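Ticket opened by: R.M.
Priority: normal
Category: complex prediction / small molecule

The reporter submitted a protein together with 5'-deoxyadenosine and asked that the result be attached to this ticket for the collaborator who will pick it up next week. Submitted input follows.
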Amino acid sequence: METKYEVINQLSQKAYSKTSLSKDEIIELLSCPEEYTHLIFDVADKLRKEEVGDEVHLRGLIEFSNICKRNCEYCGLRRDNQNLLRYRLEVDEIIATAKNAESLGYRSVVMQSGEDGFYTAEKIATVVDGIKNSTDLAVTLSCGEFSKQDYKMMKNAGADRYLLRFETSNKELYQALHPDSDYENRIQCLHNLKELDYQVGSGFMVGLPGETVEILADNLLLLKELDVDMAGIGPFIPNPDTKLANEKGGLLIDSLKAVAMARLILRNAHIPATTAMGSLDPKGREKALNSGANVVMPNVSPMKFRELYALYPNKICITDDPGHCRNCITGKIHALGRSVAKDHGHSLKR
Ligand code: 5AD
Ligand code: SF4
Ligand code: FES
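Result attached by the on-call engineer:
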């Protein structure tokens, strides 16, 4: 009879050696007792080094509007949350924020917002065009669901990448958490983005109410099936301004296991150490960087808006300005013996 240690060790080695894991094997690793997780984290870290190197890519996050027409049950920006002061940056303010990010040394920015009807595809295209014409930044959009035509307009304006998490691969759970949205449409959006030749990022939350380890394994398999260029994974953190306020949140250890498994399954994808991980534990992002992650997305939004982009409570960097975050994260990366990448950090899959 093999011990648990031996099972985990063998499966970790198998995953590392590029042999595809079955769903049951993925579940076994995701269920690994905490005392043996280092076996998984170590092979994920080794594979990260071989596949994507020691450089960490920074993407400056511009949270340009917290106005949202959707009602995702977990999110503080949901339209029914009356407890939140809403804001949106003007077109010129977004472009100025991007320029500031470039002057701080960023090579890439992510424009993120709620689904704010004011920011139509045309307006977003105008902003992208403005950034592309005045900087050498790679531009990622993370503004939710649009038609294929709309995505095309934004791509034509110069957008390089698009982030759209599927949040969970389980259709029933997706519908329960997104009462006014459609799982099939979300997946269709991801296919449309791929067809339009965006570098596509997707991902999910860990520890959503009703989630099982089987669902987590399916989330990882869906990332593989979509062949994403980037995979964003973070713990669900209950927001007091939502109906899920009293639910149990996702655990850091479970999120780290999911990140490590994403590295082992997706090989050379970009994987961020997410802000949500840093918000659960002061060392959360460092732990993720040591378990397969190779990207960090520090906030470059103007200070006065930071606390209003309240997806979940206790978000880090609320009181820190963009220059401070840039120095802070560089220090953390150097302390891990890693370096900050100087290139645009495009997908390694093409
Ligand atoms: N906890 C953790 N992550 C959240 N997000 C939204 N609300 C929460 C929450 N309460 C994540 C979603 C979304 C991303 C922008 O933020 O995964 O895609
Ligand atoms: Fe809006 Fe995105 Fe929050 Fe859903 S997760 S309510 S789409 S900001
Ligand atoms: Fe913002 Fe450390 S990254 S304070």
